[in-house]
Amino acid sequence: MSETLQLTAPDGTDFDVYMAEPEGTPKAALVLVHEIWGLQPHIREVADRFAADGYLVAAPDILSCAGIAPDLGEELFTLMHHPDEEVRVAAQPRLRDALTEARSPGYAGWATSALVSTVDRLAAQPGVAGRIGAVGFCFGGTYTFLLAAADDRVRAAVPFYGHAPTPDRLAGIHCPVLGLYGQNDAALVEGLPELREQMADAGVRFEDVVYPNAGHAFFNDAGPRYVEAAAQDSWDRVRAFLPANLG
Question: pTM, whole model, 2 decimals?
Fold first, then answer.
């Protein structure tokens, strides 16, 4: 069963959350954080897949308040992945403009607080307190790191191709982290040796997997960068990692 409800961030701003519920008692709960394109059907489908595995899933929309509502995100996603290069180039200024607020100095603090409010909602549900994880993709992978650093109720974190925060914030992570990357995602992969050292220095149990012949967004089967083998293997790893750490 699924529904969309509204939660309120600490500053009083309302935001939508897609809730996917399993049949019967949840074995654990997850915050699922979307890509830069917003709360798209792909993310809702991933939430439903996790729910079918027994998880209570909350997928918050943390970009509509910054100007990227799902309909605009879907339009921009289509344009930026269009086979005609001229169409992609013409869409770049619109994408930059749409991302202006999300790149503003105060946005990260607001978005992280909204994610903590999402954890509040999950923690209030019967039977899942102490068994809450976070999974995110791209933009959402970055915010999965930030949420884990901000809220010690998160007991397992899975950032797909996300940027890790600064070392001082990494020190706030108190849960195991599984990072998943594509070999062709050069900026992130080149930074992994340093990240491994920073995670070790912070005392964080960090495992990373780098998939050959895959790049950014390899998990998104709605886009042209989808790599089936990497997506399936990473899904299998996540399905093993979460129950091992959430009980």
Answer: 0.96
